[in-house]
Amino acid sequence: MKVLKFGGTSVGSPERIRGVVELISDEQPKIVVLSAMSGTTNTLVEISNCLYRNEKQEALHIIQNLEENYYTVISDLFKTEEYTQKSKQFIQTTFTYLRSFINNIFYPLQEKAILAQGEIMSTTLMHYHLEECGIENTLLSTLEYMRIDKDCEPDYFYIQQNLQRELAKPNVKKIIITQGFICRNAYGEIDNLKRGGSDYSAALVGAAIKAEEIQIWTDIDGFHNNDPRVVENTKAIRHLSFDEAAELAYFGAKILHPSSIQPAKKENIPVRLKNTLCPQDEGTLITEDSPIQNIKAVAAKSDITMINIKSTNMLLAHGFLRKVFEIFESWKTPIDMIATSEVAVSLTIDCIKNLDNIVLDLEKYGIINIYRNMAIVCVVGDFTTDKNGVSAQVLAALSEVPLHMISYGGSEHNISVLVKDEDKKKAMIDLSCKLLS
Ligand code: ADP
Ligand code: ASP
Ligand code: MG
Questions:
Q1: How far is the CA of 6 from the centre of ligand 3 (A)?
Q2: Could you tell me the pTM of the whole model?
Q3: Of 47, 171, 198, 364, which residue is 20 to 30 A from 177 by alpha carbon distance?
Q4: Residue 346: inside a domain
């Protein structure tokens, strides 16, 4: 069985929804994971923000506009009175639910419930549309099987047991439509896998059923060798390894959610990136191994904070780094890059929720300096033993960009540098021009 995930633009209009139907309506059994229609989740975030600020009129206004957009979609998508009415009723109920938050005190969990409505609407409309076209399908709520634990990590055992139970039920059709992004948390409340999380949902579903392949259908012809939003003339890469794709996704390539490779790698399931706008394009295949190439791709992640800890004592004395790591662990803050010297250590983080507390704890060990608005630029390729001097080429390509940290040797696939956010674009362009063209 295959798992096919369609992103926001792929279900973003009646025309695109019809395009998806063409791609999924063969006889092959499959699980289809859908994102919300493009723009919907952003709008639901805006509604939640208005509710937090108690801006009731503005929230109502945005809800009204979004609801009207959905009626426009329905009148184009559906041909029969029966399915037009069914869909309108469903959308009406959803928007009545959204309006019900207006007069109550707003708290964070309700935001999760509001954000979930985007995927609930896209999957329900797809389910009705397929039925109207005479294509048998089952709408399976992801809330029946997708769960994260107390640390917000996927509960693999629960997901597998519950998904398999749902799939074994009588009358489940060959085409199963389910929501990406949404899940329940350890307390059974509605939660999500963070923005862009539908890729992660698809990978988790694929791993749970040991799928033959996980396909991520999006609006571009595969994984490009640099961010096409920043750099001109980027090219699709035909083949990446799990490790290469994971590094690129983690370090900012928006085409994949940062964690989405991990479940596929765990079960050794090929991931294929495909373009809904041009299905005949080859796309990108991601598997355990891939052809070796000195430098394959560049990705970058903004909003990075660098923390420098400086001491006049012998800083790196036995046990020092353990204490530093423990502070970050106790505040549940992952570290991305690290560089050490005898008298100082620098680390980077992208989650600054607990930064003040981390700094208070670190101050016991030295003088702390914080540098905000930094970016990690990550170069992925084959650096095994650096036989061709690839790291020297990377640094030479970046000779006009001030570097604040360099990380090499953590894996055989990655050289990362830390630059100021304002220098990120130049670093990405210089790497493309000098190493990828
Ligand atoms: P979806 O809504 O289908 O999940 P996304 O917008 O999340 O789509 O991801 C696809 C977009 O990712 C592309 O349109 C492109 O602008 C952006 N992107 C960033 N880096 C890359 C890259 N290295 N390769 C391809 N696309 C990338
Ligand atoms: N709809 C969610 C978002 O916009 C999840 C996704 O599209 O993957 O973040
Ligand atoms: Mg996405």
A1: 9
A2: 0.94
A3: 47
A4: yes
Average pLDDT over residues 201-215: 98
CA dihedral sign of residues 140, 119, 255, 354? negative
Q: Which pLDDT score, from 0 to 100, does residue 107 have? A: 78
| Residue whose token pair is 């794709």 | 245
Measured from the CB, is residue 218 less than 6 Å from ligand 2? no
In the listed set 218, 252, 277, which residue is the last one of a domain according to the structure?
218
Instruction: Look at residue 144 and tell me if it is in a domain.
Output: yes
Q: Which ligand is nearest to the CA of 122?
A: 2
Other beta carbons within 10 angstroms of residue 170's beta carbon come to: 4
C-alpha span between 81 and 417 (Å, rounded): 58
Placement of tokens 């989740």 in the chain: 41
Ligand 1 pocket mutation, candidates 119, 255, 286, 302, criterion most atoms within 8 A of CB: 255
How many whole angstroms from 229 Cα to the centroid of ligand 1? 9
Range of the domain at 176: 2-218
Report which protein residue has its CA nearest ligand 1's atom 3. 7
Q: Which amino acid type is present at position 381?
A: G
Pocket of ligand 1 (CB under 6 A): 7-10, 35, 196, 218-220, 223-224, 227-229, 253-255
Q: Tokens 């595969």 map to which residue?
A: 222
Mutate to test the pocket of ligand 2, among 35, 194, 218, 257 (most ligand atoms within 8 A of CB): 35
Q: Which ligand is nearest to the CA of 9?
A: 1
pLDDT tens, position by position, 8-58: 999 999 999 999 999 999 989 999 999 999 999 999 999 999 999 989 999
Instruction: Tell me which H or E stretch contains 218.
Output: strand 213-218
pLDDT digits (tens, 9 = 90+) for 102-126: 887 777 779 999 999 999 999 999 9
Does residue 118's CB lie within 6 angstroms of at least one atom of ligand 2?
A: yes
Do 126 and 7 share a structural domain?
yes
DSSP assignment letter at 399? T
Please check whether residues 203 and 345 belong to one and the same domain: no
Residues 56 and 200 sit within 8 Å (Cβ to Cβ) = no
pLDDT digits (tens, 9 = 90+) for 60-100: 999 999 999 999 999 999 999 999 999 999 999 999 999 99
Residues 69 and 212 in one domain: yes
d(CA 181, CA 115): 9
Residues near ion ligand 3 (CB < 5 Å) are 7, 196
The predicted model gives 269-283 an average pLDDT of 96
